[in-house]
Amino acid sequence: MSVQIKICGLSTPETTAACADAGATHIGFNFYPPSPRFVSTHQAEKLSQNTPAKLLKVGVFVNPDDEFLEESVAAGQLDAIQLHGKEDPLQLEAIRSRFGLPVWKVLSVETVEDVARANDFANADFLLFDTKTPNGAALPGGMGLGFDWSLLEGYDGAVPWGLAGGLNPDNVADAIRSTGATLVDTASGVESAPGIKDMDKIAAFCKAALNP
């Protein structure tokens, strides 16, 4: 089965179309205000109306409150909710129950103990292993930093999982071969500047991921 591909942090109809044309399966709308990839609920509504039907829309949140989640899910017509903050398993359960959508949990990885935390989130619908950002960093992800993929060796959790963190057109095929990830996720790896997606890089990333 082909790997699934998520291009995260989209903000224009042209780039959502480019993702569909290149073979991506998921796109991410970033609802974290400090991020250069942030989209407002108004922007997300416009984007969702122009998103090709074959793309699944994932909303990216960091410790969101209920009201903001509700507004964003409705505006973006989201297919899944990705939690990138300090949310615990009980919050995952409450959010899934409230919205009836799959809930993804991002796990920040630096050590094998970080990978083991996946066992705490057996109630997630999907896990995304990402790079632990340095202390004091302004953002919890999207910084183009990778982690040691060998830390995932032997991981056999029951929850489906994907790989993020520093992936780009040059290394994504190796990442898939090395880890066996069934989904790869990139944001800065297909940008010409923070928050500015590059159509050619999107195409190159998808081509490499689909032919590892």
Automatic annotation (TrEMBL):
Gene3D superfamilies for the chain: Aldolase class I
Reaction(s) catalysed (UniProt annotation): N-(5-phospho-beta-D-ribosyl)anthranilate = 1-(2-carboxyphenylamino)-1-deoxy-D-ribulose 5-phosphate
A GO biological process held by the record: L-tryptophan biosynthetic process
Positions of the N-(5'phosphoribosyl) anthranilate isomerase (PRAI) domain: 5-207
Entries under Pfam families matching the protein: PRAI (PF00697)
Keywords: Amino-acid biosynthesis, Aromatic amino acid biosynthesis, Isomerase, Tryptophan biosynthesis
GO molecular function: phosphoribosylanthranilate isomerase activity
EC number, UniProt record: 5.3.1.24
Name of the protein this chain belongs to: N-(5'-phosphoribosyl)anthranilate isomerase
Organism field: Erythrobacter longus
Gene field: trpF
